[in-house]
Design a protein that fits this description.
The protein has an 8-stranded parallel barrel, surrounded by 7 helices. The protein is α/β, with parallel strands linked by helices and 255 residues long. The chain has helices at residues 32-41, 54-57, 63-71, 86-95, 104-108, 111-120, 153-163, 184-193, 209-216, 226-229, 235-244; strands at residues 5-13, 16-21, 24-30, 47-51, 77-80, 99-102, 125-134, 137-142, 147-152, 167-172, 198-201, 221-224. The longest helix is centred in the middle third of the chain and has 11 residues, at 153-163. The protein has one domain: TIM Barrel, CATH 3.20.20.
Length: 255
């Protein structure tokens, strides 16, 4: 059995960690470097760092913050936001990221996935899919969840894998920040469609939501932001909840 992963996500805008509901109503929560370092020391299996305004504002991801964060983090570290070219991928990996996430640019130019995977290996390439439920299924949303592409999210997940993605970061726009739990139906649909690991994101509001998604779907990892950033629950509490319900999880080794 594959050991499940617990991942804190740092959504960053203008150098500060932020969080909102359904991708809007953002509020500042803290310094990304300090928060990433603390999670690394307190049991996170991985950390994801997303510059959520980079695509909309036409900026490059904040490489200096990425470099400083990577120097203080001792677990695998994914960086995304504003990744548009192979040079962006190169820059982020050189700054210290273990993996690079891409969303809007990958939808607009799927060859970016193929080129990046060929140069650096599929294990370095994470395709982020923000999906929203419509009458005809889930659509891929881009530009911070604000633009409906009309593309079927399940079909896009399959294509991303075929193009060379090594992992899917799946966020439900409908449940993001709502704290009622992960979108189990969407998550399992994507997991069933691909063979690469899938990270569930959007909707976590309590430690019990982690074992719930791990037991109800075959997802490889689950991600949360608010419950960790607001000190509502700790990574240790989440992992204990998983262990209590029989989920195979890594021990929270404190550094």
């Amino acid at each position: 059995m594959i050991v499940k992963r617990v991942i804190p996500c740092l959504d960053v805008k203008e150098g500060k960690v932020v969080k909102g509901t359904n991708f809007v109503g953002l509020r500042e929560l803290g310094d990304p470097v300090e928060m990433a370092s603390a999670y690394s020391k307190h049991g996170a299996d991985e950390i994801i760092f997303l510059d959520i305004s980079a695509t909309n504002e036409g900026r490059q991801t904040m490489v200096d913050i990425v470099r400083e964060t990577a120097e203080n983090v001792f677990v695998p570290f994914t960086v995304g936001g504003g990744v548009r070219t192979i040079d962006d991928v190169t820059r982020l990996l050189k700054a210290g990221a273990d993996k690079v996430g891409m969303n809007s640019a990958a939808v607009a130019n799927p060859t970016l996935i193929t080129e990046s995977s060929a140069r650096f290996g599929a294990q370095c390439i994470v395709v982020a899919i923000d999906a929203k439920k419509f009458a005809d299924g889930w659509h891929v949303m881009t530009h911070g969840g604000s633009k409906d592409t009309g593309i079927d999210a399940i079909r896009w997940a399959k294509e991303a894998e075929q193009k060379g993605a090594g992992e899917i970061l799946l966020t439900s726009v409908d449940t993001d920040g709502v704290k009622d739990g992960f979108d189990l139906e969407l998550t399992q649909a994507v997991v069933d469609a691909v063979r690469i690991p899938v990270i569930a994101s959007g909707g976590c509001g309590s430690p019990e939501h982690f074992p719930e998604v791990f037991k109800a779907t075959d997802v490889s990892a689950a991600l949360a932001a608010s419950i960790f950033h607001e000190n509502t629950f700790t990574i240790e509490e989440v992992k204990q909840s998983c262990k209590d319900q029989g989920v195979d999880i890594r021990e929270a080794r404190l550094l």
